[in-house]
Design brief:
The chain has 316 residues and is mostly beta strands. It contains no helices and 29 strands.
């Protein structure tokens, strides 16, 4: 039986706290990583090969995302700013000042707006083509905001915060339209490819919610405190990681654990599936990004599984 051999992407010097893939483009797909070293990195998604480092923040970078075609990047940092980047040249296009640490950033589906949240507890929506315009203030939480995401149609926003609530907003009316509260701090949220399902990571639980109804459908328990989870684009698997340094793979239909992998030397802060579902990426306290095969033993990217039993880790 083939053994999981992760690709190790080195270069960061502090914990990696956020990851985001672009959609598939004519040049493949891309991966951006946010790190407490203040230097987000762009990589080729299929191989983990380093493309460039975004230089400009003066503090830890807590959030990083790419727009669909990987021409633009956005980051949120401890220097009280969110930056919009030209992801081809690596230059800052606009720096949006805040009054506290920015922990979350998200592009609208049409890439006309940038949503931000963080220690200020305020949700802001910036119009990208008018960098000098004041942002729309969508609303606020009672605790620091950890994650912000857009609904697939661009007509709703979802935010998660340290007040243990997840809320849905109407960007036009700037009103909260739905919410639910949990008993433990929320570590991560992710929408499915179609936007109909939301994964919520909290305590030792991974919960599956109906995005439209904002109601819980199913929930299962991890063997450790969970920090992040991601859903396969075809809804085949859920992968998750957390406090015990491991990555776990579950069957989406049965929620049964299929496998677990250990390669990191610290807790796993973030895990995300690639847009084609062939691999998933993890970011850890150990300062590395690792890429893992969804279907171990297939030829993909730098994995060539023709004959040998060489389990030597691959470093990019």
């Amino acid at each position: 039986m083939a053994k999981q051999t992760p690709l190790t992407c080195s270069g960061h010097t502090r914990p990696v706290v956020d990851l985001s893939f672009s959609n598939k483009t004519e040049d493949g797909y891309f991966l951006i990583s946010a790190c407490k070293d203040g230097k987000p990195m762009l990589r080729q998604g299929e191989t983990g090969d380093w493309i460039g480092t975004f230089l400009g923040h003066k503090g830890a970078v807590w959030a990083a995302t790419l727009n669909h075609n990987a021409l633009r990047a956005a980051t949120g940092a401890a220097d009280f700013s969110a930056n919009l980047w030209d992801a081809v040249k690596g230059d800052v296009i606009t720096s949006y000042p805040h009054k506290h640490i920015v922990k979350a950033v998200a592009f609208s589906p049409d890439c006309t707006r940038l949503l931000t949240g963080g220690q200020e507890k305020i949700i802001r929506s910036f119009l990208i083509e008018k960098p000098d315009a004041d942002p729309d203030i969508i609303g606020s939480h009672e605790g620091a905001i950890k994650k912000v995401i857009w609904g697939n149609d661009g007509r709703t926003m979802i935010t998660a915060a340290d007040d243990k609530s997840i809320r849905k907003w109407d960007p036009n009316s700037k009103h909260e339209v739905q919410r639910f509260d949990l008993e433990s701090p929320i570590m991560d949220i992710e929408l499915s490819k179609e936007g109909d399902i939301m994964l919520v990571t909290h305590s030792k639980s991974i919960a599956i919610y109906d995005t439209k109804l904002f109601t819980k459908v199913r929930e299962f328990t991890m063997p450790t405190n969970a920090y992040s989870a991601s859903l396969h684009p075809d809804k085949k698997f859920i992968v998750a990681g957390g406090e015990d340094f491991k990555l776990y793979k579950f069957d989406f239909q049965t929620l049964q654990e299929l496998d677990s992998y250990k390669s990191h030397f610290g807790p796993v802060h973030i895990v995300r599936f690639s847009p084609d579902g062939e691999l998933f990426a993890s970011g850890s306290e150990d300062g590395t990004v690792r890429l893992w095969q969804t279907n171990v033993g297939t030829n993909y990217g730098l994995w060539r599984c023709g004959g040998g039993e060489d389990d030597t880790p691959i470093t990019t």
